[in-house]
Design brief:
Elements lengths: L1 H18 L20 H4 L14 H6 L8 E7 L4 H11 L3 H15 L10 E4 L4 H7 L3 H13 L8 E3 L11 H8 L3 E3 L9 E9 L3 H11 L5 E10 L2
Parallel strand pairs: 1-6, 2-5, 5-6
Antiparallel strand pairs: 3-4
Length: about 240
Amino acid sequence: MFVNLVQLKQISQGIIHLFYPRLCEGCSKPLIAGEEVLCISCAVELPETNYHNIADNETALRFAGRIPFQHATTLAYFTNDGLLQHLLHGLKYKGKKEIGFYLGRRLGLQLRNTEWIASIDQILPVPLHIKKQHSRGFNQSAMIAQGISSVTNLPVTEGILTRVRNTETQTHKTRTERVNNMEGAFTVYQPGTITNKHILLCDDVLTTGATLEACALALLDEKGVKISIASIGIAVS
């Protein structure tokens, strides 16, 4: 009976996919078995940085001298009208949570090949303000964190780092304006739970780094905390 139910479910899913095929988020062609979010052709077009193999990469340089951190990396380059911009727009504004998990998983596969990932104690996604999260229905960075976790088996912790100010959008702000906008935006809700922990902060797109910097500063106020940083995209011209 169990086998028959499994077979019945597979047949039902096959019929659904026949009439309502899953489409590639890059080219809109139907996905085949084994493909998720992107078809193979589009998946190889994602402009990965390979920063996980480069210590002094651009992500690390954007935080150098600003906050003490252990490691920093980014999955792919983010450009206006590029494939990654299209994917993240679908994630954030069209509710396609599977995109966040998929991108996080790809980042996790890179991180799994680093020596330092074994020293991480937990993953903390950059939190949204409660009003924005209620409006959106989910936190896109949390979906990315879950994708990373699915590969690395590191726990994802939400609620420890909270956003206490509903800040203005960072779009079109200068570097200084972004830093001022984020000042005091985050606080640690349960300080004792991260004492002496090595935390991987994750976010969707790194531009000036003001948001991640504000998160890190709040966490680094706690005893013995070490920070590493991972983002899906890094904005480039």
